[in-house]
Design brief:
By secondary structure, this protein is mainly alpha-helical. 77% of the residues lie in helices and 0% in strands. The protein is built from 11 helices and no strands. Helix 8 packs antiparallel against helix 9. The N and C termini lie far apart (64 Å).
Length: 192
């Protein structure tokens, strides 16, 4: 028999739909209702954290991710969100500590693997970053694929693998022609 979702689960689904439709105020209200109805569950805190992170409210998002992790230490969304915030504020080791288990719990999640590889690169561990990227593989969506190839090119450059850097930067540039940063990186690798 089908299970009827509880009120807090319905509010969460409503918040996700509102967020996807570009209605952040309505989504925020729905996620806050989830927290009110289910304060011991991680879901509302994590989903509201994601929304606020997208709106540039990193401090409040960080608090929400931490609250979610207090309630459910393995929460994927909260680990990924907190890791992303920490990476943005240049706390690469702490970011990697949150991103690694998030990625390992869902190896097919592009964003988790990508963010973890970025953290490893920031920590000057290009070999490990390369392993993560190889396991992750290039995504089909062109925007994500361009980011992937730009990062694999940068990691190859860190490893002084110039042919791989040229190849990967070329792939990235073909996906986003006119992107001057990728073009500059490609030129730098070609010259080496």
């Amino acid at each position: 028999p089908a299970r009827i979702p509880s009120d807090w689960q319905l509010y969460d689904l409503q918040g996700l739909a509102e967020s996807a439709m570009g209605h952040p105020d309505a989504a925020e209200a729905s996620f806050r209702k989830v927290i009110e109805l289910a304060p011991t569950r991680a879901l509302g805190y994590a989903d509201l954290g994601v929304l606020l992170l997208q709106l540039g409210k990193e401090e409040e998002a960080t608090r929400l991710f931490q609250s979610a992790l207090q309630r459910e230490p393995g929460n994927f969304t909260a680990r990924l969100g907190l890791g992303t915030v920490l990476l943005a504020v240049k706390q690469a080791q702490k970011a990697a500590d949150f991103l690694k288990p998030a990625w390992e719990s869902n190896l097919r999640n592009f964003r988790a693997g990508y963010e973890y590889a970025l953290a490893l690169r920031e920590l000057r561990r290009p070999g490990e970053a390369q392993e993560v990227l190889l396991k992750l593989g290039a995504p089909a969506e062109p925007g994500f694929a361009a980011k992937y190839y730009a990062l694999t090119g940068a990691v190859a450059e860190d490893l002084e693998d110039w042919p791989a850097a040229v190849r990967d930067y070329s792939h990235a540039y073909r996906l986003v022609p006119g992107e001057t940063e990728i073009y500059s990186s490609w030129v730098r690798a070609v010259v080496k």
